[in-house]
């Protein structure tokens, strides 16, 4: 049976370290501030944004949420971002994705000042990451690296298989893991919806990172004995026995996979708390740079 990678506990440790940096900044009269933009009323997005703002408050950081109706025009959203770029109270800006279909997501991301792009989604930061230059790293991939590091998982020389090729998780986490660095130095395979024999790849993985966006994409028969499994998925499964009417499941079939894996992240309580923590980390770094 696999041991759990406790994302909440590791997140708490990183937040503790951040706390002292925040206190130092506050002594200089600077409160790290995050501006959050939420367009529309998607329940999952509301829940993520609430979690991010709560985490800011817990560490004594400032956050300001701007909630906009789904009908807002692209021009109005661009004008809001322009004003946030100029706002000295905000060291970081986060526009929760996905955006409504009539808004060009790339255009919005490109309007954010790269110096305030604490998501690490702006092409300047994405490009710098690819080139190995100093930049804001995207939160979920960086959180995954931290989970592996804190759990004592050796990435050097490891066979890593990533399921999913999104800009937010798959592409950047693959990049960070094959970089000449520690953590890093892995041999990385990226699998996606056009991959022919998924199982042939996943069975070779020492470290399997699953960001496929679909529940139970990985079952126990697809996992090598002793593998480390990182489950990035968050799926709402209808469940009448729950007060909310649903339960959360990752992209991994937890019961069969945990019989094969040596270490596995639970959902919830694995990757999620680390994503939020790395967002705070980037926001504190942005505030430090403003001094
Ligand atoms: N939607 C899903 N994940 C993320 C994230 O990390 N940042 C933002 N802004 N939107 C998201």
Structure report:
It is built from 10 helices and 11 strands. The chain is α/β, with parallel strands linked by helices. The protein folds into 2 domains: 30-113, Leucine Dehydrogenase, chain A, domain 1 (Rossmann fold); 139-272, Rossmann fold (3-Layer(aba) Sandwich), CATH 3.40.50.720. Helix 7 links the parallel strand 5 (159-163) and strand 6. The longest helix is centred in the first third of the chain and has 21 residues, at 7-27. The relative contact order is 0.17. The mean pLDDT is 98. Bound molecules: guanine. Residues 94-97, 119, 139-140, 168, 275 line the site of guanine (GUN). InterPro entries: Aminoacid_DH-like_N_sf, NAD(P)-bd_dom_sf, THF_DH/CycHdrlase, THF_DH/CycHdrlase_cat_dom, THF_DH/CycHdrlase_CS, THF_DH/CycHdrlase_NAD-bd_dom. Keywords: Amino-acid biosynthesis, Histidine biosynthesis, Hydrolase, Methionine biosynthesis, Multifunctional enzyme, NADP, One-carbon metabolism, Oxidoreductase, Purine biosynthesis. Pathway: One-carbon metabolism; tetrahydrofolate interconversion. Homodimer.
């Amino acid at each position: 049976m696999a041991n759990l990678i406790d994302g909440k506990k590791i997140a708490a440790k990183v937040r503790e370290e951040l706390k002292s940096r925040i206190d130092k900044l506050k002594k200089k009269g600077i409160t790290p501030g995050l501006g959050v933009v939420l367009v529309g009323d998607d329940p999952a997005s509301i829940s993520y944004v609430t979690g991010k703002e709560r985490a800011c408050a817990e560490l004594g950081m400032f956050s300001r949420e701007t909630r906009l109706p789904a009908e807002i025009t692209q021009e109005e959203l661009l004008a809001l971002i322009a004003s946030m770029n100029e706002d000295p109270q905000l060291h970081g800006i986060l526009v929760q994705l996905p955006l409504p279909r009539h808004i060009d997501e790339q255009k919005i991301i490109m309007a954010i000042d790269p110096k305030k792009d604490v998501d690490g989604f702006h092409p300047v930061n994405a490009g710098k990451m690819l080139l190995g230059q100093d930049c804001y790293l995207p939160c979920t991939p960086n959180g995954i690296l931290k989970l592996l590091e804190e759990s004592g998982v050796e990435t050097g020389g490891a066979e890593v298989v990533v399921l999913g090729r999104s800009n937010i998780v798959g592409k950047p986490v693959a990049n960070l893991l094959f970089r000449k660095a520690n953590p890093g130095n892995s041999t990385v395979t990226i699998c996606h919806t056009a991959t022919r024999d998924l199982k042939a790849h996943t069975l070779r993985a020492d470290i399997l990172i699953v960001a496929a966006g679909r529940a139970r994409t990985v079952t126990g028969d697809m996992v090598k004995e002793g593998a480390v499994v990182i489950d990035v998925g968050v799926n709402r499964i209808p469940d009448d026995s729950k007060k909310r009417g649903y339960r959360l499941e990752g992209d991994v079939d937890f019961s069969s996979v945990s019989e094969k894996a040596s270490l596995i992240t639970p959902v919830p309580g694995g990757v999620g708390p680390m994503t939020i923590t790395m967002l705070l980390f980037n926001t504190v770094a942005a505030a430090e740079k403003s001094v």
